[in-house]
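Human: We require from you a protein record containing the residue sequence and its fold in token form, and nothing else.

Assistant:
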Amino acid sequence: MKHLLLASLLGSSIALSISAMAADVDADLLKAAQKEGEVNSVGMPDDWANWKDTWGDLATKFQIKHMDTDMSSAQEVAKFDAEKDNASADIGDVGSAFGPIAKAKGVTQAYKPSTFAQIPDWAKDADGHWMLAYTGTIAFIVNKDLVKDVPKSWADVAKGKYKVSIGDVGAAAQAVNGVLAAAIANDGDETNIQPGIDYFVKIAEAGRLNLSNVTIQTLEKGEVEVGIVWDFNGLSYRDKIDPKKFEVLIPSDGSVTSGYTTIINKYAKHPNAAKLAREYIFSDAGQINLAKGNARPIRADHLTLPADVQAKLLPSSEYAKAQPIKISNAKAWEETSKALPEKWNEQVIMKMK
């Protein structure tokens, strides 16, 4: 019945687009989203996890225009909180630790997509304020022109002579999880980040810590020798620049698997377009778009990836020592990640040479 109603309201081509999604989209939501006509995002740029294809699909299938302003997870939450009723952003994509923070600040609104039941309990807020769309695992990206002995583990990196780039631990979820991954490899966990901090203190004291963000630009310029990144970012950067020049791998002695969640701004000027965007992100097509960007879709158990997309991902054997954030430690990790920037500045930055 929904598809018949959609066809009468919006034309058969739109109805076919909806039917291609993993679950039905409410006709009233689609009509309201198209009336708004646009969605403005933060932290969802084209070259991150292949957001480009999702924004393109929203434009061609549903006539929803899009604009993004790239920023870190912490900046996104702060922006929602600071602007309030003068909101310039409708939806953002933040690291898993920042979803509960945003909800606690009261800057999100709940929306459960039609596929909500297929999202694991550990990866979502029960009320629908946040839910992971995809996961990533902390990896190394190594410039083989600059580093001849490619490190396979955190222990290898500790013994190296090259610079190690991690980015902004004070604001970026990727960098925060990089510290956690180092902690896990050194007998720490979400409740005890100190082994990770101690690891980077030694790197800093040796004059080997590089705070540059690992991006296409810094990699192309040769500013990154060994970078700490999400696997999906590393694979995307490698493929876009030169697959022969860079190696991407999961450290063999430990890593962390986490993810990113959309948050819909409580004060959004285009709330229905933001909800439609979330609906599409969690559809089969949206999940495959993320996989095309080398991210691992949260609904992977409920869809079949195209063979060429599956082939681009790292083999499962690489992830033997990678572990997800434990459900029992989720609250502790929220507190740990809040305290990490201050500890990082006091203990690591102060030791840089």
